[in-house]
What we know:
Number of strands: 9
Oligomer: single chain
Shape: rod-shaped
Keywords: Coiled coil
Coiled coil: 82-186
Protein name: Chromosome partition protein Smc
Organism: Muribaculum intestinale
Largest sheet: 4 strands, mixed
Amino acid sequence: MKHITVILVLSAAIAACAPKEPTESRQDLMEASRQELATAVSERDMLFALVKEIAVDMEEMKRLENIISVTPVSAESGVREYSQLRNDMSALKRSLNQRRQRLSAVEEQLQQSGLFTDDLQDVIDIMRKQLDTQASEIKALNTRLLKANSSIAALNTTIDSLNHSIDKANNQRDSIGRNAARFEEELYTCYYIVESKSALKDMHIIESGFLRPTRLTRDFDNSAFIAGDKRSLGALKMTSDKARLLSNHPDYSYEIIDNDNTKMLIIKDPENFWSHTNYLVIQTD
């Protein structure tokens, strides 16, 4: 709306300073008047062009202000968008400087001609004030953009820190999960072996002597044992009707039944059965 007002004022000012239509008594001055009119029209057109360009610059500033005020800048594209806005404002600032130089040049041309009036000076002053206002607005926009960029940088730092904390927490959770799985596996792992007395002695699992009872050794190699899961190992074939348990397990936690002339160990209470030892040793003879 402002630039329309400037155009109207400018038109009136140019019309006021345009030369009057020559009379018949001044035919010898017609050509000179035509030249003055052409000059006035040319300078008017230059001022009109400047007014339109200033209006375009005002629209561009509104666009940039809207981007800075309304459009969210994402963390991923923040650097690119910030750089683009800085470039746009730098280009607009250069454009305003060029407009200011052109306005000064037109003002000088008009002052040197016979067409310059106070009305034209008022129009030029209005345009110069508009350029000054636009320059101030660009400076303010640039300050806001710098603050926004600082805020984005701070947020990015916070996000990076949070991501690092999340990654660390995830790693700790995974480590705890792995340790828990390993602990659970160790907790429910049991070992059993079903062998003859001589085989058990050869593997240094049991020891016996004259008038001494058979018993488990303190430090035996468990590589000969079969690993199992306490939760799923509910029965075990003993391979012989003479088989017996050498390891220590509560009597009430299991029973031995006959199955086709072969004894079968049935674990009735796994928790108590394995409460004294994780090793089950069965001697078959």
